[in-house]
Amino acid sequence: RYLLSRKGPLAGKHVVVTAGGTQEPIDPVRFITNRSSGKQGYAVAQAALDMGADVTLITTPTALNAPCGATVIHVRTAEEMLHAVLTYSRSADLLVMSAAVADFRPAQSAEQKIKKTGKELALTLMPTRDILATVKEKRQQSGFPRHVIGFAAETEDLLNNAQKKLETKGLDMIVANNVSATDAGFEVETNRVSFLFADGRKIDLPLQSKYAVAERILEEALSWL
Ligand code: CTP
Ligand code: CA
């Protein structure tokens, strides 16, 4: 880190990025997850590296190659991601929460593979903890992470829902993402998003690559960092 000191507008800044959908186990061979490829989060990590930041990427298993130069922390469940975020964002200048965190997990994970019976099987799901809500509490005590950006994945009423999340989660900015479009959001290479800011500003971006979206996100963060 000190030998290979980096250049760029984010040099000397520590950026923590989360990516991918968390995996909540049902039994040793099955899990519940979200429809997330990790592409937008990996693009944020790559763009932050390209701008000179020290990057910690907290990721669930994805089909993507880790960006070269990032410190990569592998997690599976929402609970594991929560602990990793709290640990690594303790000294972070910026946390970008791109991960699709499960809102529910199976109440129990069976120790052995559940065998088929030909009959119905009911799963009881429990709520997971909200990572950004926990980060908000820590940040009020310690001041870290200094800045936080969240995402809002919505299929309806995008801007109203995103605005509520911006406020309740205490974010500097939220990236509002309509995930019901076929050319933007889940799995594809492109994204069409709007930025909503704590100070009331709003920016609508045209359809563009996830890397270009990532650069725009970090350009906004540059003005605070
Ligand atoms: N998030 C989080 N912890 C969770 C769930 C979500 O930190 N347990 C984060 C996501 O990473 C994202 C933001 O909160 O940055 C919004 O996630 P989203 O799923 O859109 O909102 P939720 O608050 O989970 O509400 P809902 O899914 O009911 O719309
Ligand atoms: Ca959710």
UniProtKB/TrEMBL annotation:
Reactions performed catalytically: N-[(R)-4-phosphopantothenoyl]-L-cysteine + H(+) = (R)-4'-phosphopantetheine + CO2; (R)-4'-phosphopantothenate + L-cysteine + CTP = N-[(R)-4-phosphopantothenoyl]-L-cysteine + CMP + diphosphate + H(+)
Cofactor(s) essential for the protein: FMN; Mg(2+)
Cofactor note: Binds 1 FMN per subunit.
Keyword Magnesium: yes
Keywords: Decarboxylase, Flavoprotein, FMN, Ligase, Lyase, Magnesium, Metal-binding, Multifunctional enzyme
Ranges for region Phosphopantothenate--cysteine ligase: 15-225
Role: Catalyzes two sequential steps in the biosynthesis of coenzyme A. In the first step cysteine is conjugated to 4'-phosphopantothenate to form 4-phosphopantothenoylcysteine. In the second step the latter compound is decarboxylated to form 4'-phosphopantotheine.
UniProt name for this protein: Coenzyme A biosynthesis bifunctional protein CoaBC
Gene: coaBC
